[in-house]
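Q: Here's a chain of 654 amino acids. Please give me its 3D structure as tokens.
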Amino acid sequence: MTIRNTFSRFWQRLNTSGPYAPLLAMFALSLVVLSVSRFGLVVWKLDRVDATHQLANVLLQGLRVDIILLSLFSLIPVFLLPIFTIAKWWRAWQILTYFWVILALILIVFLEVATPGFIAEYDVRPNRIFVEYLKYPHEVVSMLWGGFRIHIFASLIFIVLTMLFMRNFMKPWLTMPSRWSMAKILITWPLVFILLVLGIRSTLGHRPANPAFFAITADSMVNSLVLNSGYSVIYATYNLIKEDKSSEMYGKIPREEIFKLTGNQDTDIPTLKTLIPSQKRGKPLNLVIILQESLGATFVESLGGVPVTPNLEKLKDEGIWFEQLYATGTRSVRGIEAVTTGFQPTPADSTVKLSKSQKNFFTIAALLAKQGYSTEFIYGGESHFDNMRGFFTGNGFKHIVEQKDYKNPIFVGSWGASDEDLLNKTHEQLLAHHQSGKPFFTLAFSSSNHAPFEFPDGRIELYEQPKATENNAVKYADYAIGEFFKKAKNSPYWKDTVFLIVADHDIRVRGDTLVPIERFHIPGLILGADIKPQRMTTVASQIDLPVTVLSLMGITAQHPMTGRDLSSEPVGTEGRAMMQYNDNFAWMEDQAGKKKVVVLRAGKKPAHGEYDANIKKLAEVNPPDDAKAREQRALANSLLPDLLYKEQRYRLPK
């Protein structure tokens, strides 16, 4: 009787908030449940949390994630509130929110109770695997009954207890009278709705918060503690829905034929090979990759573009310059995927964003970390953008530098610190790495060549007016590159380091052909240490670059990359490139001086063409005599990465 009176008094006070009372109650109870659960998990895994020195952040950022989840749970009923108000369905609103809140608490409690067992098995909160297992009820029930009976009974007990508690707790709400007028509800509704949307976004940045936003350590298990299991499962479900897009839209080939056509075998890691470096070294070199935002061949005069990269034009004579290098896609994450993992493109999102590749997916950082290298990602903006932080921290990058780590930056725009700041920070980090004596791999990703094209005044003579154009932004990015290499060449790390400058993609990739190949053309330059100047004229893909730079560094290692070691190939070797453009996949082969192209299309026969690099034009042609063989090679190379990703076979040997 005392408990019932306590609940009644609680609701009488809360009813002053009108129709929002049950949602406020849900917020209060859920925050207690989620905070207690997170605290218990932290205590359980205190040794790993303590090793990251991020205990306070885990708890504070965790509260932020809880608000995201509860705002998400509240959004639908609040969205429907005006309908109930105008129709004067107060009783219906009470019943809806009564069941809504009870079900929300049951779901939250169930997932949190299931979490310890899941972490014990998979070292992470319930995620994609948790959702995928729902498709196999028979196998899952057998597995749970065989090895997780305690967890099953604990979940059932907590579900029953939660249900009984919530029924009694929510019961007084069903008898509460409506104290708010229709006008008051309709006036406050837009504000409440906007607050919930902001609560879900949890940031005023370019993109809403996502799991990568809360990847605050290199330990993926600790990062998952920041989340709550409800948010983790919902986000995993969202990603799985997006992942349904498959290369099979182009057709199917028997599994054994895919491996045969791509030169691989159906083993544990089908593409595994051993790299024998072209440069034998007693001590392998360091590696620095400068990934340039949207700096395609469009902006490089010697590649047929606008003359806004004078520093790059000078540097190209000092290293290996790629004249026919092509990006694999049109987004930064696709360029990151190609350059850091050597993974071939698919119609789905880049593996940087997909769930199965957030851990134990191959990157050159993971390979080099195993060889004792310090691995680092440097960015001028917020590293959670496009899930970069989440992907990198789960796959070999041990240190992340982002906007908050810059002290007194020269210029900060919409996308973060300028390229000048980025490369100044990179130089500073490289000096520190060299001083430590430990080999290092650093990936620096620029952002100045991105709308709204902001950069500091007084650095360059503008190419055109007004100031905020892509040509001026690229010229500034080129200025920053030039200033960096002036310092790098006079620094102690220069003689021990290989540098790769490459674009992630060209800007605004579009055209009137099935695949605008001319807009996939990008510059690439390898220089530093003892690299001898060379013009690489073979058709090459971004996925060839990581293999090539590792070879030049003197690295001997096993890896799953399918790219070519261009430093070991004879001059004149005919190359190939692959390009994903929306739902079209282009496979281009250099053959007898001609660039033969096959374009795979969803629901249509493959198209054939010839690309003229001089006039930058793809012309469609009738299928040649060897059309079927070309189409099969293209299809196999589109299906291979899809298969490797889904079966999680693109990784280093255990």
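Q: Can you summarize the key feature?
A: Residues 90-122 form the longest helix (33 residues).
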